[in-house]
């Protein structure tokens, strides 16, 4: 706290602490289901995912090693997914060393998936929450594809 003076006036000023920021990078890997299944034509799909997140980060000024279990659910947009392309939204959480909640949009072209959206780390509800990643979508099935594996490099920040 300090007193600022200007001639005959004085102002009592204080600075509030900045909110604690969280940031991290990691590798997400796991498997999921697609229903009713990706085929040649676009069809609305329901998506599940279970896997793990491993990485490093910082919460405030404390370094953390991230070792979380993750579960996400979502759906393709009304235009639907097919074997060649897909667009949709998923939401879910990762728990373990950190509590992470995320709402993500995905865009897939073939086996390459980009994800982006909002993330909250340990309950952060600030105005600058973001998560993004690049993923590899893998399956051994011929259409209709109802099971998949995914590996993603991810980054997130929450203020």
Structural domains: how many:
1
Strand share of the residues? over 45%
Write down the secondary-structure element order: EEEEEEEEEE
Question: How are the strands of the biggest sheet laid out side by side?
Answer: 3-4-5-6-7-8-9-10
The whole-angstrom Rg is 21 Å
Main sheet makeup: 8 strands, antiparallel, barrel
Mean pLDDT: 87
Distance between the termini: 24 Å
Tally of individual helices: 0
Q: Tell me the structural class.
A: mainly beta
Total beta strand runs: 10
Helix content: under 10%
Poorly predicted runs of 5 or more residues: 9-18
Outline: elongated
Summarize this structure briefly.
With 159 residues, the protein is an all-beta fold.
Could you please describe the fold and organization of this structure?
The chain is mostly beta strands. It has one domain. It is 0% helix and 70% strand. It is built from no helices and 10 strands. The chain has strands spanning 2-6, 9-13, 22-38, 46-59, 62-76, 85-96, 100-109, 112-121, 130-138, 145-158. It has an 8-stranded antiparallel beta barrel.
């Amino acid at each position: 706290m300090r007193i600022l003076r200007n001639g005959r006036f004085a102002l009592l000023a204080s600075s509030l602490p900045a909110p604690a920021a969280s940031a991290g990078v990691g590798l997400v890997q796991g498997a999921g289901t697609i229903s009713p299944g990706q085929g040649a034509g676009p069809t609305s799909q329901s998506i599940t995912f279970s896997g793990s997140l491993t990485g490093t980060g910082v919460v405030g000024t404390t370094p953390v090693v991230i070792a979380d279990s993750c579960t996400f659910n979502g759906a393709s947009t009304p235009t639907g997914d097919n074997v060649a392309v897909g667009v949709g939204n998923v939401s879910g959480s990762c728990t373990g060393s950190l509590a992470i909640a995320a709402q993500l949009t995905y865009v897939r072209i073939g086996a390459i998936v980009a994800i982006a959206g909002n993330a909250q780390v340990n309950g952060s509800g600030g105005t600058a929450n973001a998560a993004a990643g690049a993923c590899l979508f893998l399956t051994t099935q011929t259409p209709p594809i109802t099971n998949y594996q995914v590996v993603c490099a991810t980054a997130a920040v929450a203020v």
